[in-house]
């Protein structure tokens, strides 16, 4: 089932534990040692607040990554269930 959702990362909260990476491989280590996320179009960003929008069947992976983050730096918001 395809779901439309946002993943928001608060990079000011991230401490680089990388518990998220092993749950969802769209999360990546950025050159600054903090996390970033690969967007659907292949780009990524290293702003303090990084938001990526997806429409796919990987919502569960994103939620696992968010739950694993020890500092709650990741938010997943569902926009639309198709
Ligand atoms: S799990 Fe949280 S603190 Fe760790 S790298 Fe991911 S976003 Fe940063």
Key terms:
Alpha-Beta Plaits, globular, 5 strands, binds iron/sulfur cluster, 82 residues, three-stranded antiparallel beta sheet, single chain, 1 helix, mainly beta
Walk me through this protein's architecture:
The model has no long low-confidence stretch (mean pLDDT 93). With 82 residues, the chain is mainly beta. The termini are close together. The radius of gyration is 12 Å and the shape is globular. Helices cover 12% and strands 37% of the residues. The chain has a single domain (3-81), classed as Alpha-Beta Plaits (2-Layer Sandwich), CATH 3.30.70.20. A 3-stranded antiparallel sheet has the order 4-1-5, with helices on one face. A two-stranded antiparallel ribbon has the order 2-3. Iron/sulfur cluster (SF4) binds at residues 9, 14-20, 27, 35, 68-69, 71, 73-74.
Describe how the helices and strands are arranged.
Blueprint: E1 3-10, E2 27-29, E3 35-37, E4 49-56, H1 59-68, E5 74-81
Antiparallel strand pairs: 1-4, 1-5, 2-3
The protein binds iron/sulfur cluster.
Iron/sulfur cluster binds next to loops.
- Give the percentage of residues in beta strands: 35-45%
Structural domains: how many: 1
CATH topology: Alpha-Beta Plaits
Architecture, according to CATH? Answer: 2-Layer Sandwich
Oligomer: single chain
N/C terminus separation:
7 Å
Number of strands: 5
CATH class: Alpha Beta
Radius of gyration: 12 Å
The number of helical runs is 1
What shape does the CA trace take?
globular
Uncertain residue ranges: none
Which structural class do you get from the secondary structure elements?
mainly beta
Helix and strand pattern? EEEEHE
What is the averaged pLDDT score? 93
Strand order of the largest sheet: 4-1-5
Ligand set: iron/sulfur cluster
For the biggest sheet, the summary is: 3 strands, antiparallel
Task: Please estimate the helix content.
Answer: 10-25%
Protein name: Ferredoxin
Organism: Halocatena pleomorpha
Pfam families: Fer4_15 (PF13459)
